[in-house]
Amino acid sequence: MKYSSQMVAKPYFIFALVLLAGEILFGLILGTQYIAGDFLFPEIPFNVARMVHTNLLIVLILFGFMGATYYLVPEESERELWSPWLAKATFWIFAAAGVATILGYLLVPYATLTEITYNNILPTMGREFLEQPTITKIGIVIVALAFILNIGMTVIKGRKTVITVVLLTGLLGLAVFFLFAFYVPDNLVLDKFFWWYVVHLWVEGVWELILGAILAFVLIKVTGVDREHIDKWLYLIIAMTLVSGIVGTGHHFFYIGTPGYWLWIGSIASAVEPLPFFLMILYAFAMEKQRRIDHDNKIALTWAKGTAIMAFLGAGVLGFLHTLAPVNYFTHGTQLTAAHGHLAFFGAYIMILFTIISYAMPIMRGRLHGNGAKAQAVERRSFWMMVIGMLGVTSALVIAGTMQVFIQRVGVDVLSFMDTQAEIIPVYTVRLGFGLLTLAGLLTYFYSFFVKEESAA
Predict the structure, then answer these.
(1) pLDDT tens for residues 199-236?
(2) Largest CA distance in the chain
(3) Would you say 308 and 274 are in contact if contact means Cβ atoms under 8 Å apart?
(4) Which of 295, 297, 303, 422 could form a disulfide with 355 if both were Cys (CB 3.0 to 4.6 A apart)?
(5) Rounded to two decimals, what is the model's pTM?
(6) Which string of DSSP letters, residue by residue, matches 174-236?
């Protein structure tokens, strides 16, 4: 380890992977409930399972981002972390709050949960993806402030690089936009308008800055390409991301009561949003082509290239295909939205976490040049299992969403929502199979950590 304080990233990475396993498990429960509606009812109703599934996703990404930041910032700043103790404390506080919140969802009726967590004093609960109790949200703010203080002081006192500036900008944006989770207007249109300030401007805004910074760090390490060259690409990608992503919030304002000009703004921005992701593909493969070293940790580069491709397909292509206003009029709220969401989150944010973990974890375990050939072979197998699994899940959802449009929304003799769902059950069965493959891929990834290399003769 170049800096001993980088080790604080390890529990963040491990906990993020554990949460990912739970997130996929609850996804499989939901997939089964689409086929057999009374599966695990009343113990885990569909609405509770979905709430746990989405909240685990958000929390695991935040833990992964924090771990990645604690690992790369000391190296970029060329100094130890400002306060390793604070980093360890925020881990346990955040982990305890996260576990308590998930257990609250599973063990306490949501209405009761709002009462015992004093939501009546500062009402913030009841909104999709922001279901966390008010006290949990306050805890998240405290953890975020401590985290940014720690990283900010490290960056200020050390070397400044493009990577740390972009990363810190993304982290500050993450904290600022989360504050809109506390703003709940009485007017439903205003509520949905500002709700997207958290959900969209996180996912299609500031999180992409964090993604770009992590990707740039790993590419520098495994390719040896000049930092100045990578910085130029990073500036271009981030500029296009912010321009298209911020204005692209408009594609969520089509049918919530906002003025009609959002139909044009949202559609035009949606047409631009795939471009930064396409540039990310060119960026990753150009860095590989121009690499000046042949790093032993080849699987980390595989994850980096996979991140660029899958993010482009999920966030870029599938996002664009259903967010043009004339198309979205028919596709809004169908499984096409779920297809975009699943592949975008996996490609952009889960795979970038695998990228940094696959690079950093071997070093934190004393393997400075990465895992051995056998472990990397197992990890490469897990890579393809998860990628094929998620592509299968997404393809099934695209088919299911298309069927919804034509059976439920287009034509004269349309079916009701529930009758339409019954028609789609065979497709949901296929989706469940690919979901199981994804889980098997993650378990294979876990196994790669325990593969022992043969001793040299």
Answers:
(1) 999 998 899 999 999 999 999 999 999 888 888 888 88
(2) 75
(3) no
(4) 303
(5) 0.95
(6) HHHHHGGGG---SSHHHHHHHHHHHHHHIIIIIHHHHHHHHHHHHHHHHH---HHHHHHHHHH
